Amino acid sequence: MANITYKQVNDYMIPNLKLPPEESAVRLGKWGMLYKDYLQKHTPALFATLLGQGKLYQHCAKVEEQANDMFDTLIEQLKKTEGITEKLKGHNQWEWIQRMENIQARVNSIVYQEIISI
Predict the structure, then answer these.
(1) CA angle at residue 107 from 81 to 71, to 5 degrees?
(2) Most exposed among 11, 38, 58, 102, judged by the fewest C-beta atoms under 10 Å?
(3) What does the alpha-carbon distance between residue 4 and residue 78 come to, in Å, rounded to a whole number?
(4) Could you give phi then psi for residue 59, rounded to 5 degrees?
(5) Residue 67 and residue 55: Cα distance in Å, rounded?
(6) pTM to 2 decimals?
(7) pLDDT tens across 42-71, in order?
(8) Distant-in-sequence, close-in-space partners of 4: CB < 8 Å, separation ≥ 6
(9) Are 115 and 71 in contact (CB under 8 A)?
(10) Span 88-104, pLDDT tens digits
(11) What CA–CA distance (Å, rounded) separates 102 from 30?
């Protein structure tokens, strides 16, 4: 086991811990951060295990990739089934915006339920 060094902050000795290089290079987006927060609040044992193993951010990044793929796929499918086209965008921008925002809200909810809140 590696030697752990400490620094003193007031009356406390705080360990000098660093993330592994592969873990510190990961940058999470919207879905990855939502998933990390979900794990921390609802599955603290899994959160602590992944954090202790230095794999939390890598795991969240994989979930984020899945969520982004699902989000993009569902947006395109719903646009197609509901007839939201570039022609509509050129003809009536406000209707296009409203319908796209409606689709995005529904897809956000679906992705959160299916991927984030496992």
Answers:
(1) 95
(2) 11
(3) 53
(4) -65, -45
(5) 18
(6) 0.79
(7) 999 999 999 888 899 999 999 999 999 999
(8) 15, 16, 17
(9) no
(10) 999 999 999 999 999 99
(11) 19
